[in-house]
Design brief:
This protein is of the alpha/beta class. The protein folds into 2 domains: 59 residues, RecR Domain 1 (Helicase, Ruva Protein, domain 3); 140 residues, 3-Layer(aba) Sandwich (Dna Topoisomerase Vi A Subunit, Chain: A, domain 2), CATH 3.40.1360.10. The protein is 46% helix and 14% strand. The strands form 2 sheets. It has a 5-stranded mixed sheet with strand order 4-3-5-6-7. Strands 1-2 form a two-stranded antiparallel ribbon. The model has no long low-confidence stretch (mean pLDDT 91). The structure holds zinc ion.
Length: 205
């Protein structure tokens, strides 16, 4: 029996869930099948809870209207907190980078999430990122330092360079995380100690 005829034995709703699991990062065909058959055997309540959690995530999660981090409601908890330093904005590529920096415990300022990096070959240009929104914040809020915490790779460096050009005329101090982070990597994979040191050792551009 070939694997093709095996596939024909799998009824459509099961095949469909295997296919959907298989689209997730890090999930190969074997794991996708294992997850699907696990849910098939498990109590119906477990499948319902999973489906409802996915739906609630899509319906309730929004972007903070100030820093564009993911949140529920208008303003995220960091922006809403009276104890955060309102004079510092740390610019990151993705919401996961905010979590990575929060884990270091070394930063008490605000954030700004760009939602990507400059990568013309991938079709991501300046206008696709929350750059104008950042410049508006620097003009309108009591900011004295912008920390460029884009990833230590080619795209992240190119994005930081572009931001520096945009920020320079605004008279704000612009800093970059110190070298020492694994080059080519993403902030989200850096260990908290290394990332905390890179933050504390940031240098003016
Ligand atoms: Zn926010």
């Amino acid at each position: 029996m070939t694997s093709r005829s095996d596939n024909n034995l799998i009824v459509e709703p099961v095949a469909r869930l295997i296919e959907e699991f298989g689209k997730l990062p890090g999930i190969g065909p074997k794991t996708a099948s294992r997850l699907t058959f696990f849910l098939l055997r498990a109590e119906e309540e477990q499948s319902r809870a999973l489906a409802e959690a996915i739906q609630a995530m899509r319906e309730q999660v929004t972007l903070c209207t100030r820093c564009f981090n993911i949140t529920v409601g208008e303003i995220c908890p960091v922006c809403a907190s009276p104890t955060r330093d309102q004079t510092k904005i740390c610019v990151v590529e993705e919401p996961l980078d905010v979590l990575a920096i929060e884990r270091t415990g070394a930063y008490r300022g605000l954030y700004h999430v760009l939602h990507g990096h400059i990568a013309p070959l991938e079709g991501t240009y300046r206008e696709d990122l929350k750059i104008d929104e950042l410049l508006a914040r620097v003009r309108g809020e009591p900011v004295d330092e912008v920390i460029l915490a884009t990833n230590p790779n080619t795209e992240g460096e190119a994005t930081a360079f572009l931001l520096l050009k945009d920020l320079a005329p605004l008279g704000v101090r612009v800093t970059r995380l110190s070298r020492g982070l694994p080059t080519g990597g993403d902030l989200e994979w850096a260990d908290p100690d290394t990332l905390g040191s890179a933050l504390e050792g940031r240098r003016e551009l």
